[in-house]
Specification:
By secondary structure, this protein is α/β, with parallel strands linked by helices. 42% of the residues lie in helices and 18% in strands. It has 6 helices and 7 strands. It has helices at 11-22, 44-54, 77-98, 124-144, 161-164, 176-188, and strands at residues 2-6, 26-31, 37-38, 57-62, 102-111, 148-152, 195-196. Strands 3-2-1-4-5-6-7 form a 7-stranded parallel beta sheet, sandwiched between helices. Helix 2 runs parallel beside helix 3 (77-98). The longest helix is centred in the middle third of the chain and has 22 residues, at 77-98. Belongs to the short-chain dehydrogenases/reductases (SDR) family.
Length: 198
Amino acid sequence: MRILLVGATGLLGTAVHRELTERKHDVVTVARTGGDLRYDVTDPVQVADLYAAVGQVDAVASAAGAVPFKPLADLTAADYQAAVTGKVLSQVSLVREGLRHVSAQGSFTLITGVLSREPVVTGAAASLANGAVESFVRAAAIEIAPQRINAVSPTVFTEALDHYGDYFPGMKPVPLADVAQAYVRSIEGRQTGQVYVP
């Protein structure tokens, strides 16, 4: 399959890229500062330009989505907007613009996270964004068939505990290899409207 991988140079994107290429897929990598193509998917104009440059693909996989972490009392309107723009609207744009560029039996795989179901202190903006993405996936799935759409919703990565472990007290970490397998399940499988929890 020809797969567009967004956020390909980050920790998760690198793991997903490695797994997909090992499975003999043709992966086109996209990131703001690296990859085969450089685009900022928080800008809808750049998303349209990205698809114009890439052409037809069989699947789109997103491993990108930034959200602020602050105590609820310190979160500003701009912080919430940043979470929605960085994780929700960017991925919605990938689907909206991608519908005509993804093959009829193709798929979209978006990234959410554990905070949609297990909130933590300082994670309100992330919980909001993750929940919105998951709701969008379920709604889009009933309208875009036979194209498919799913989300991957991991907890903190084992490989990122040094940097982010304090945000997720008591939560069992997940190896990046397991998260990458959830992307494979979404891309190569036949289910739609699912939220995979690796």
